[in-house]
């Protein structure tokens, strides 16, 4: 292995250069290159790996402390010995502050002092580099630690939001989305979007106002059990400093997958919950509310109407001659007729109207914000729409259905309750049947 050391002498004065080079060449195992300007010196260090530089401060293209600064910026790992003309302590010290390791007075240059300064400045530079590396390493470790703490805090907040039994799912997901940016060191520039496919979230999407489509993004699929349930996307509007060779650290990618996993678990819980609620509230065959749930939901509507003095009407409906369908076409055809009946009703009704199967072929419909006159129009439409329909039924000719309907407006001002009003609608329904069926009758 060669012990030859490479030195660069930057000196614009030809006389001074001759003197210094002569002394340098007396040293064993040294190769010296000579540059006459800062530009030439900067070019030389790109070509050759030097161990030390002897740097004159007064050059044609740079003067004084600026020379040291520019050189040290360009070659931060190279030992620099400044050559000064005068015994100028202030300038010498300033050179050291700018990044030089040693200085020599030109008048006192000899082989011995050059040798000493060369060894000293190289050693000092090595020590400086190891201190700098240790400090950089500590900063990196601190940064990583800070990132992990942010990620853990974020996961903790997300878990709390998702596991809170009081929060509706949409509010919990909004909280999750707003928490995610805090997991990164520059949270202010981060946008988040959560897309849910399973219909549990009204609208299906929760996002921060600064979400946009950029190439700086992390993404993870959300699964509820084994079913695809959505997607988490995190975006950075501008390019961000890369982590090593990658755009994102491994822990950042892991974090997004972990967030997706927790959101997926919450969605799965919500799915199960929804199914349980449906089993308890919905008629399995027709998907109308069951009697109990219809009474609960409509009871709340009646109370609300009473509180605000708003109208509310009820319809009682009975499919005409339903028993005949069962007897003549079989129970499967009867079931299809019941399903079709509810679908036809929904086609005529508004979203806020409430449909309940009260038992057998008997249904009730609650119309919030609707007085008698308008309720009779709705009832007429249901009756007419049904009478027009031909229902395809497996194993036979299409069915034609008719319905009889009794209509009552709730006597809100008299404090009439749901049961009493349903009773009046039922009496009107009875009358509609007695008067020949396929007709609408208003309650007294
Ligand atoms: Mg000079």
TrEMBL record:
Annotated GO molecular function terms are:
diguanylate cyclase activity
**What residue stretch is flagged as signal peptide?**
none
Gene Ontology biological-process annotations: cell adhesion involved in single-species biofilm formation; negative regulation of bacterial-type flagellum-dependent cell motility; phosphorelay signal transduction system
What domain of life?
Bacteria
Q: Does this UniProt record's set of keywords contain Transferase?
A: no
Q: What EC class is this? A: transferase
InterPro entries xref list: CheY-like_superfamily, Diguanylate_Cyclase, GGDEF_dom, Nucleotide_cyclase, Rev_trsase/Diguanyl_cyclase, Sig_transdc_resp-reg_receiver
Residue positions where 4-aspartylphosphate is found in the record:
56
Domain GGDEF: start-end pairs: 310-444
Which UniProt keywords are present, listed alphabetically?
Coiled coil, Phosphoprotein
Residue stretches making up the Response regulatory domain: 6-121
Q: Which reaction does it catalyse?
A: 2 GTP = 3',3'-c-di-GMP + 2 diphosphate
| Record's protein name | diguanylate cyclase
Record's GO cellular component, any one? plasma membrane
């Amino acid at each position: 292995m060669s012990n030859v050391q490479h030195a660069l002498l930057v000196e614009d004065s030809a006389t001074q250069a001759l003197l210094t080079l002569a002394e340098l060449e007396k040293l064993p195992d040294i190769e010296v290159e000579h540059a006459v300007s800062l530009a030439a010196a900067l070019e030389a260090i790109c070509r050759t790996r030097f161990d030390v530089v002897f740097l004159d401060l007064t050059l044609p293209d740079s003067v004084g402390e600026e020379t040291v600064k520019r050189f040290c910026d360009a070659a931060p790992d190279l030992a620099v010995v400044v050559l000064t003309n005068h015994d100028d302590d202030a300038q010498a010290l300033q050179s050291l502050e700018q990044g030089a390791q040693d200085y020599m007075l030109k008048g006192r240059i000899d082989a011995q002092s050059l040798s000493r300064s060369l060894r000293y400045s190289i050693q000092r530079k090595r020590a400086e580099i190891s201190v700098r590396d240790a400090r950089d390493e500590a900063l990196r470790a601190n940064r990583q630690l800070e990132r992990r703490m942010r990620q853990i805090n974020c996961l903790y907040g997300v878990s709390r939001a998702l596991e809170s039994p009081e929060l509706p799912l949409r509010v919990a997901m909004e909280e999750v989305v707003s928490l995610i940016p805090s997991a990164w060191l520059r949270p202010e520039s981060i946008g988040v979007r959560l897309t849910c496919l399973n219909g549990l979230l009204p609208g299906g999407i929760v996002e921060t106002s600064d979400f946009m489509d950029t190439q700086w993004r992390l993404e993870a699929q959300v699964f509820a059990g084994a079913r695809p349930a959505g997607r988490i996307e995190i975006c950075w509007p501008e390019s961000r400093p890369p982590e090593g060779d990658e755009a994102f650290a491994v822990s950042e990618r892991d974090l997004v997958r972990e967030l997706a996993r927790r959101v997926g678990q919450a969605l799965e819980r919500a799915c199960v919950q929804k199914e349980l609620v449906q089993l308890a509230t919905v008629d399995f065959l027709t998907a109308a509310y069951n009697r109990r749930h219809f009474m609960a939901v409509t009871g709340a509507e009646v109370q609300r109407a009473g509180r605000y003095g708003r109208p509310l009407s009820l319809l009682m409906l009975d499919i005409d001659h339903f028993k005949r369908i069962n007897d003549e076409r079989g129970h499967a055809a009867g079931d299809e007729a019941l399903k079709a009946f509810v679908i036809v009703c929904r086609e005529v009704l508004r979203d806020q109207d409430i449909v309940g199967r009260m038992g057998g072929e008997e249904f009730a419909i609650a119309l919030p914000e609707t007085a008698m006159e308008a309720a009779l129009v709705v009832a007429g439409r249901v009756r007419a729409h049904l009478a027009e329909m031909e229902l395809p039924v497996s194993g036979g000719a299409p069915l034609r259905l008719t319905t009889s309907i009794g209509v009552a407006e709730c006597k809100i001002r008299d404090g009439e309750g749901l049961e009493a009003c349903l009773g009046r609608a039922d009496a009107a329904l009875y009358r509609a049947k007695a008067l020949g069926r396929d007709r609408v009758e208003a309650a007294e």
